[in-house]
Structure formats: structure tokens, C-alpha cells
Amino acid sequence: MDLAGAAAQRAPGTAPAALAILGALVSQNVGAAFAKHLFPQVGSDGVTALRVGLSALLLMLAMRPWRMPPARADIPDIAIYGVTLGCMNLLIYHAFARIPIGIAVAIEVTGPLAVVVLSSRRPRDLAWVACAALGLWLLLPLEGAARLDPRGVAFALGAALCWALYIVFGKRASVLQGGHAVAWGMLAAALFTVPFGAAHAGGALLAPDVLGLGLAVALLSSALPYTLEMMALKRLPRRVFGILVSSAPAVAALAGFLVLGERLGALQWLAIALVVAASAGSAGTAGSARAD
To answer: Mind listing the pLDDT tens digit for each residue in 188-204?
Structure first.
């Protein structure tokens, strides 16, 4: 078989999965930028409750997963996947409330990078990780690290751990058909997060303007991106998925610029280029990595 034929065979599996990850990241970070407008009204716990709770409702209505309930053996993985998802949302929104979005996401993405490093067996995979790590190091404002709220940094690190676990258990749960793992997982996440939001914000969560913006955040930040990610998890190895989502700080920086007016310096743009290069390189080698 010639090279063109081999590439044609790889493309149906890897190229759509890579595009799904890109679409998920754009949607998720634009939604996160909009979510900051709700912090003064309902707090980070309230925003998380709206995002996850409304996403669960939308996914349950759209997919009706109860028509094909999961096997008993799959329930623990789905439950852990959902709780991890909810915990990741709670922690990262607490981080957003205390430190800039770009810094929080740059810290959070160390979770997927850790999955890449721990599961990699080939030098070229580590090279892409090194490229992404250099970009993240340049993106972080190290000179101002001492002025960052330590609680915000701790919340972002906790979100990083949850993101790594999300990849592991999401991969296991992705065997369910029709995207049902996302719906069941989001329901588990809602059962975990909504009580926190209700206890913090109370009746403010039901205000029409809050519900309207919360619905937009739920669609952009949870329902759409997690569905796309679950589709990609079926086709990509963990380490390739991890490297692809390493572009999250770059996408977050762009979302911050477009939605919140956050301007970037030349060094930060260089960091973005390095992270995007790492993501493109990993997508280019995904076909051969699937054989591992």
C-alpha cells in the first residue's frame, strides 16, 4: 500500500477526533469566559451548579439514556467519571474566581500532560510533551507567582488531578453506545455539584437572567465539549488525547482576549505557538500511536 493510501485509512479515525477536541476546547473556554459574568451573582459554586445541572438535564432529554441502561459492571466507572467531572468543574471555577483564567488553565493542563508522560513509550511523544511544557512555562507569569492567591493555585492543581482522572475513567466509560456515557456521567456530576451551588446561592439560581446565561454556559462549557471529547476518546490513545488538550491554555488565552478583552504579550504569543505546535504534532502521529 502506498503512503497516500495509508494516510487515507488513518484520516477517518484520527482527523475527526482531533477536530472534535479542538471544537470542544473552543466551546469550553468561550463558555468559561462568559461564566465569569455570573460570579458576582451566584458565586463559583452557583455557576458550577448551573453549568453541570443544566447540562445534565439537556443531555438526558436529548439522548434519553434510560432506554439503554449501562451494564452493572460499567456503573462504577461511570460514577467515578461523573464525580471526577463534577469535582473538576467545582475546583476550576474556584480557581477562576481567585486567579486569571489563563494561569488557572495552564496549571490545570498539567493533569493531561502527566497522563501523557506516564503512558508514553516513544521519544517523539515525549518531544511533543516537552514542546507543550515549554509553551506552558512561558505562558505562566513566573515573576508574579508570589502575588497569586495560593488558594487559587491549589484549586487549579486539584482540577489538574481531576482532569487526569477524567481522561482515565472517561476512556473506560466511552465504550457505551450513542454518547450515553456523557449523559449518565453528567447526571452523576450534577448530583455531586448542585447541592454545593444550592447551598451557596439559594434562590438566586432561579432568576431568569441567571438561568438564561447559565443555559448558554451549560451548552458551551459542558454539554457540547464533553460530548465531543467522548467521541474523541473512542478513537485516540490517552497520551494523544492528553497532548491535544494541552492546547487548552492557548484557547483560553484567545477566549479571554475575545470575550474579556485580555491582551497578550509577545512572549505569551510565542507560548501559544509552542503549545499549538505540540498539539498539531501529536495529531499528525496519532495514527501510528493507535497501534501501541
So the answer is: 899 999 999 888 888 88
